[in-house]
Design brief:
single chain, about 160 residues, alpha+beta, Alpha-D-Glucose-1,6-Bisphosphate, Chain A, domain 4, 8-stranded antiparallel sheet, 8 strands, about 25% helix, about 45% strand, globular, START-like_dom_sf
Amino acid sequence: MKLYQLHAKQTLPISQKEAWEFLSNPNNLKVITPKHMAFNVLSGADRPMYAGQIISYNVSPFPFYSTKWVTEITHVKEGEYFVDEQRFGPYALWHHKHFLKPIEGGVEMEDIIDYKLPFGILGQLVHTSIVKKQLEFIFYYREQQLLQLFGKYGNGTQELHFNSI
């Protein structure tokens, strides 16, 4: 079994409260997800985030492939972090931790995603050539969208690292 980890950090020149208000609203995922992925929230985003919340989406991670993605918010500490875990979707495992930390001049957003691909060795073979590149693009797109949304305050930075566990 091959487990992968994506670790991303991005700084934005906004307050922790502003970042939390935006990032903890599942409806805003559509704003920071590449348009070609046709991301759409189906249900579960009708109230503020809470542990146990189930959110359903439609997403098209690759051309000609669309899937339903169901996540559960398993942990929430208001203003500081939340964790979402896939219950049904394109990954064999998806565990995504979102952290917010105030820093001088803004906020640092940190994402740690542990994930496993389905289809055994075939999944491992397509990781580097397809899945990793798609995730890199998604996080690059997210960085650009967040900078556009909050750019009136200045510039931000992003670091992105992948590891195999």
